[in-house]
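Support case: user asked for a sample of complex input and structure output to validate their parser. Sending the pair below.
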Amino acid sequence: MSECGSCSGNCSEGSCQQENPQDQRIKKALGRIKNKIVVMSGKGGVGKSTVATNIAVALSMAGLKVGLLDVDVHGPSVPRLLSLQDAQPHMERDCMEPVAWSKNLSVMSLGFLLPSKDDAVIWRGPVKIGLIRQFISDVLWGDLDFLIVDCPPGTGDEPLSAMQELGKDAKAVIVTTPQGVAIDDVRRSVTFCNEVGNEIFGIVENMSGFVCSKCGNVENVFGTGGGEALAKEVGVRFLGRIPMNADVARAGDEGFPLSKLGDHSPAGEALNHIIKPLIDLAGRLQEQKGGEVDSSLPESGDTTLVAIPVAQGQLCQHFGHCEKFALLEVDNASREIKSGKLVDPPAHEPGVLPRWLADKGCNLVLAGGMGARAQSLFTENGIKVVVGAQGGDPEEVLKSYLSGSLVVGENICDH
Ligand SMILES: Nc1ncnc2c1ncn2[C@@H]1O[C@H](COP(=O)(O)OP(=O)(O)OP(=O)(O)O)[C@@H](O)[C@H]1O
C-alpha cells in the first residue's frame, strides 16, 4: 500500500484507486442524461452537422429535453446552423451554462468560446480530449432525454474520446452519402464502433438524389441506396435518406432548422422518419401505451379548451382523417365540462390542424392515433396531447380524463 496524500488510503501498488474529481463530475453529469447519441461520418462534408443539428431540433420540438454538443474542434458549425454565432455561454468560476436555443434545446460548441469565428484551432489529441471531457464535466447540462454529439469526420481523437467518455451506452448515428467512396469510409466507422464496443443506432443516407425544383425530376447525382445496402449488410437500422435539396443548404447558411421547410417537404419527411426510432428510444410514446395518463389541466387561465377528433360521432382513431372536432370547455377549478360543440376542421394539410386549434385557444388534445410529427407540432404550439385514448363518445372520453380513469392503448398511427 502506498500513500498519495490526496486520498484516504484506498491505494494499491503505487496507483491511487480514488476517482479523480473530474471523473466524478463526468459520472454525475452522465447520470442525468438518458440517451447519448454520437453523430459521426467516415468522410467530411456529408452533412453530419446538418443531420446532428436537425435531429436535436426535431427531438426538442417533440417535447424532449435535448443537449447538442459540437465537438468538431477544427470546424465547429453548429453555432451557424442555429443562428447562434454571437451567443456566449454564461460562465461561472468552475462551470458554464450551455446556450439555450429554446426551452428544450441547450447547445455547447467550441465556436462559442473562440474570440473570432475566423480563428483556427491548432490542437493536438490530448488537448482536444481534455476539451471534450470539460464539455461534459463542467457544462451544466442538467436532466436531458438526449445528448446529441456532433463529431468531426473520421475515426480520430474526437469520436474515440466522445465514445470513451460517454460510455458503452452511447450509440452512434452514422451519416453517409450514397456514392461508393463515402460508403467505404462508413465501413471504417462501423468497424470503429465495433472495436470500441458501442452500438450503432442507425445509418442516415444524406444527399440521396437531387430533386429538381422546376420539374420534380430526381437525379441520382451520387447514386442512391448505398447507405441502405450497407445498413443491411452490417445488420444495423437504416434511419432514412435525405435528398439533396437547395432548401437544405439555404437552411444551413441562414441558420434555421429543416423542420421549417414543412412536414411534407422531402427533407421534412426524411427528418420525421429519422427521428421516429429515436423518439421511441426515449420511451415517450411507449409511456402512453401502458395506461398511466397524466390528467392535469394547463395551469394558466380559468378554463381549458379540449379538442377531440371525431368520426361518426365517436372518438376518431386516425387523427388526420377525422370528420369533426368536439371542442369542450372545462372549468379548471371544478374540473367540470361547461360547454361543448362540434366544429368542421379545415382541409387536412400538414401543420394546419395544430395552428387552427391553437388559434381557437385549444390547450389540450385527446386523440386516438396520431403520428409523431403531428404531436411535435402540437407541442410547438403549446398544446398538450394525449394519444392512444380509448372510448367512443367524446364527452365520455373527456370525463374519463378528468376523473383520472382514461384508458390509453396503442397509438395506431405510431408507424
Ligand atoms: N441534403 C442536403 N442538400 C443540400 N445541401 C446539404 C444537404 N446536407 C448538407 N448540405 C450542405 O452541405 C454542406 C456540408 O454540410 P455539413 O456541414 O452538415 O457537413 P459535415 O459532414 O458536418 O461537414 P464537416 O466534414 O466539415 O464536419 C453545408 O453547406 C450543408 O448546408
